[in-house]
Specification:
Elements lengths: L1 E5 L27 H14 L6 E7 L5 E11 L4 E8 L8 H16 L4 E7 L3 H9 L3 E12 L2 E10 L1 H19 L2
Parallel strand pairs: 4-5
Antiparallel strand pairs: 1-2, 2-3, 3-4, 5-7, 6-7
Helix pairs in contact: 2-3
The structure holds coenzyme A (COA).
Length: about 180
Amino acid sequence: MPVIGPWHAGTLRPSASGGQPSGPPGPNAQPYTRQGSADWCTKISHSLGTGDGIHFAIVDANTDRLLGTVGLKKTDWRGLVSEIGYSVAPWARGRGIAAEATRTIGHWLMVDHGFQRMELKAATGNLASQWTALKACLQREGIMRNAGFIHAGRVDLVLFTLTPDDLKSQFDHDQSRANTADHR
Ligand SMILES: CC(C)(COP(=O)(O)OP(=O)(O)OC[C@H]1O[C@@H](n2cnc3c(N)ncnc32)[C@H](O)[C@@H]1OP(=O)(O)O)[C@@H](O)C(=O)NCCC(=O)NCCS
């Protein structure tokens, strides 16, 4: 079962990452050095939490193995808007882990912290990320032209968002499904 928690010095130890090359998995990251990985776990992921955002490791609750990363960035504290980003390690893909983490973070951000909007921006060619956003109940708002860059160059981005109303709709939907199941 995947769980979300803070990065720490042990997150990337070989037994935690299942013997895979260490380094937080990410789409645009250059290969991580051992020092770079250590810095991410103990300093960088935490310093982001002081203003721009916050970053978590996704690990397997039973084995402690690193599965991925999820975090918030570009936080607008006045407007109560933040942007989610995620990646799942190649060895853990195909189980919907990013969607589950996104649902958890979205709920935490809005219910526990009163935020009004969470954004996700995916390159138009990144279908896995777009499916992830939809599975996490984000709404597709449209295309941001030439707004992103990946290794291959500049790309259009698809903007997805979650608001408190979306969470409420999802809750109502889940309740009515549960009630239907009870009456079977
Ligand atoms: C995006 C990412 C986090 C999703 O990982 P994941 O949680 O394991 O997601 P899954 O592999 O379970 O896929 C989620 C959905 O996308 C679909 N999908 C996956 N790859 C796909 C592809 N290449 N084309 C079309 N659909 C795809 C899956 O079928 C699944 O939908 P389903 O449950 O209805 O079958 C992962 O692919 C990743 O880390 N990519 C690199 C980093 C990245 O792009 N981050 C997002 C930046 S915006």
